[in-house]
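Quarterly update from the structural biology core.
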Amino acid sequence: MSNYYKEKNKITFKIVPRNQNNIKTYNISKGLIKLCLTLILVAIVSLVGSLAYFYREHSISLDMINNLEDIRYKNNSISQENEFLKEQLFELTGEIEKVRDQFGDVITENQQIKELIELNDQISMSDFKNNMEQNVGYYTFDDPENSTVDLIKYAQANLDMLNEILPKQRQNLNQLREEVVEYGNYLEAKPRGWPVRGGEGRITSGFGDRLHPVLQREVFHSGIDIGIWYNHKIIATGSGKVVLSRNHGGYGRTVIIDHGYGYRTLYAHNNRLLVEVGDKVERGDVIALSGNSGRSTGPHLHYEVQYNGDPVNPREYIN
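Predicted structure, tokenized:
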């Protein structure tokens, strides 16, 4: 009975040649066959699992490669943007240097103008910036969350504005400086002060109608008479050019100075003339020595101020 079950649990294979000689018989246990099939199935499952695992890993690798490509592309873009920003910053640096030079020029012009009008306080960059903000204005940028590109754009906008405004400001300052210089020249030329060195002498006859001491009749006196003894130093009361220096009729030895701006001054009855026609004089220069030449009753200086050809009261220009 046991042999029967043993034989039942086996599978017999016979190999029969064509000549039917040497027939070979193989008995294989069904358990062995099941084991082999199980091993084969396990191998197939393992193979499929391995293929699935490698496929998943391959997919992950491809995704990583794609991500790396994206990162490399982004890095390239960032590198290009950085290069662009570097170029922009380099250009901005150059523009800032130019604007700084223009600031310096404008500040220098301001200081020169202040010195011309005798305001010796120094002007500072902050003073000038405050003035520019009040009169020109700036683009402002207070949001730190914005990108560097936006910051550069705002900086460039400010520089463009300053490059447009500063030349106009400098032109206006140059014009103002010329006007101040011209006004300074005017003040230097306009007759002012006492025409005798050291304040010597006193007014003995005023401006306007008076009884003439020689003609003994009322005539218009076109200046003032300053009683002064011989050879006191007569000085120019403003800068200008000598247009007359000679004996001038009843005025005797006379000097006339053209100060420009419509002003002339006349110094008459001198004893000696110390300048010639064409000489340029400054306020305080000695031009003659006092005397008693011409139609005169005693040593004195006749002093006139003329504006646009008409005599005006010298008293208004003495003080």
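The radius of gyration is 57 Å.
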